[in-house]
Design a protein that fits this description.
Length: 240
């Protein structure tokens, strides 16, 4: 029970909380862009790549878990409150399918975040070995942050790429009401499935307790970094 409350639950809350916060900030950014342009996001050309990547991530993760993609459309679906949509068919009683639905529904947030983190690593931390050393260190969040700040060395070429990709993909990060509905619908099963994985993990590798704790800490750090990027983009868009 101690492992569950001190390690598993915080990790789950960090993951869910990060998804909701990052999605909300980017949703506000998209709304600001739409208000500025006076058109819907599907009618704004520079939003289309992000929307495409958003739907592509839904479909790719769904297929990875065996869900059937019955429709892939980049047309707006006002009834679902989405700029585009992917339709899925799956066995609602299959735990793996429910886990796949959960990850597929949230994929635009964590998938695009991973892309931005990789590009951000090249833009701000050219010496990748140092970054891995910080992530692997059993330090507090504040200590990791201080260490990473001291390692920043901007690569201007990669920074330009990072900024362009961030602006292009920002419209794809926000989750639609339908995405959130699917995520919450499948969350209980995903929660139970990952509990089983967690306890199997600790049963066969007791030392993994410390590893999972470190994973939670690094996930929180990465969440904060992506949230920071998102807030900067939101601020810039609202200044325009």
């Amino acid at each position: 029970m101690q492992a569950f409350m001190n390690v598993y639950v915080p990790g789950w809350l960090i993951f869910i909380g990060g998804i909701l916060l990052i999605s909300a900030v980017n949703g506000a950014t998209v709304q600001a862009m739409v208000n500025h342009a006076g058109r819907s996001n599907t009618q704004i050309w520079y939003m289309k790549p992000g929307i495409f990547v958003h739907e592509l991530l839904h479909a790719a993760i769904a297929r990875l878990f065996g869900l059937h993609v019955t429709n892939f459309s980049l047309r707006a679906d006002p009834s679902q409150g989405s700029a585009a949509h992917v339709s899925l068919r799956y066995d609602r009683h299959d735990p793996l399918a429910q886990l796949g639905l959960f990850l597929s529904s949230s994929a635009p947030v964590w998938g695009i975040s991973l892309v931005l983190l990789v590009l951000g690593r090249w833009a701000f931390f050219p010496d990748g070995n140092q970054v891995w050393q910080v992530l692997a260190a059993s330090s507090s969040l504040s200590e990791k942050w201080v260490m990473m700040r001291g390692m920043v060395a901007i690569n201007w070429q990669w920074l330009a790429i990072f900024l362009v990709v961030t602006l292009i993909l920002t419209p794809g990060i926000a989750l639609s009401p339908r995405d959130l509905q699917n995520m919450w619908q499948s969350a209980p099963i995903a929660f139970l499935v990952t509990i089983v994985i967690f306890y199997l993990f600790l049963t066969f590798w007791p030392a993994g307790f410390a590893w999972w704790t470190l994973l939670n800490l690094n996930l929180l750090l990465l969440d904060l970094m992506v949230l920071g990027f998102s807030l900067v983009i939101w601020f810039v868009v609202n200044l325009l």
